[in-house]
Amino acid sequence: MTAPHPRLSINQATIKHADLRTALDVTRAAGVEAVGLWREPVNAVGLDTAAAMLADSGLRFTTHCRGGFFTVPEGAARRASIDENRRAIDETAALAAAGAEGSTAVLVLVAGGLPEGSRDIAGARARVRDALGELAPHAEAAGVTLAIEPLHPMYATDRCVVSTLGLALDLAADFSPHVVGAAVDTFHIFWDPDVLAQIARAGREGRIATYQVCDWKTPLPADVLLSRHYPGEGVIDLRTLTEAVVATGYDRDIEVEIFHADIWADDPAAVVRRTAETFGASIAPHLAPALAHPA
Amino acid sequence: MTAPHPRLSINQATIKHADLRTALDVTRAAGVEAVGLWREPVNAVGLDTAAAMLADSGLRFTTHCRGGFFTVPEGAARRASIDENRRAIDETAALAAAGAEGSTAVLVLVAGGLPEGSRDIAGARARVRDALGELAPHAEAAGVTLAIEPLHPMYATDRCVVSTLGLALDLAADFSPHVVGAAVDTFHIFWDPDVLAQIARAGREGRIATYQVCDWKTPLPADVLLSRHYPGEGVIDLRTLTEAVVATGYDRDIEVEIFHADIWADDPAAVVRRTAETFGASIAPHLAPALAHPA
Asked: What ipTM score was computed for the predicted complex, to two decimals?
């Protein structure tokens, strides 16, 4: 078997049922160089332990998933959410510092849906902007980039009112690109007639905080959250999207993040190997050749 | 019970399992003045009979559903699709002529998804434009407006590659607005951050061929095609969308089109009454007062 592409990063959600120890071990054992982590398994062992385990793994750290869920109006729930996001920012900084050279301090944000009983999607979007304003100074001080992730419009009301890359960039516009960027995930935005123009814009504005890949096909499963597939096993034109991202100059790691019941039920080591194979076949050929590191 | 709003039209899909006779009877019996029909039940009785039944009902005819499904590359299947669309145009003209005064000759088009084995969504969209170019002269000669219906992006790959009102208007741009317009359906476009600007544009360009309403809520059912609800029973801001459509000067009938297993299983007469009630509560208050007809 050929070595995994050096820019592949395994997002921990792809092997959701693996604890942090297992996730790091199987990623490294497969020859993958980078990993994106999730808050729950990190906090299950405690941040200091997680950071030590990450440092010991020798893996680069690419993103922390996830913050956000701040569309509720002012009140105790909103204060709790902002506080939780500040903790997530601190975790991100600690993990990025513990990861190998080339790690990035990126916190992925999923905005949240409509508050219970609300039909005001425009208001919810305005509160996302407000939350970014509250969190930006803390993120900047911590050296963390907040990555607004547009989610597919089928999640617009119950999970993420930010449905397009264009809206994510509009929300980010008032902030420095080092502080607020966007997550570019093929699954969520491939359908957008404006996707290539918005990827180019994101690059021009310096806001591609992370590039994540997986695939889409129908029929959707009963739980539409779990409809993500290995790259190349669906109908997304991954070549065109990847070339558009490469054309912006994005040269960092690329995560594969898959939510799928069958994949979660599989052996994590096998899933990481399969992820590396499918990445190698469907993403790697569209990346610029890696530059040799100076000796 | 108060009379249904005079601009309410029952789209036959809302009472899918009713044959044409039943659909016309229950619509008229409820005091509703207009109806949108589907090709299958019309062709089940034959076009001439259907037109006579419609004329006899005294109902206005609002749309014919549906044409489209022309994203496949050149070949026999594409030729068959174009021919089928020509027949649908002719049916639309015949039914509009048979409907009561104020009927409109509008054929709703659902573009179709990615052809089998294809990942080329841009190519599929280009073939939609090509099909419109082929069909426009026939539609113009028949006095029929083709209404491109953008469908929610969750249907982008298997049903309709036209995912936004903006794209529908871009595709329509080369044609006269009397020949090619767009269907504005709340369910499909409410999530779009650009929806209000695109509704205004559609009005300015004279391309709102039909306004259709129903509602969205989550969780989505296992078959995501059947996730449409009575207006007001979900989370769409129907007031803001309806006011935006009214602001364009749109003053014609408004269809309620619902696909839902429970509603389809219900008694058609009860469904029409419930549709009139929910329309009265959630749409009618946002319409300009009806002008009295001159005596």
From this structure: 0.94
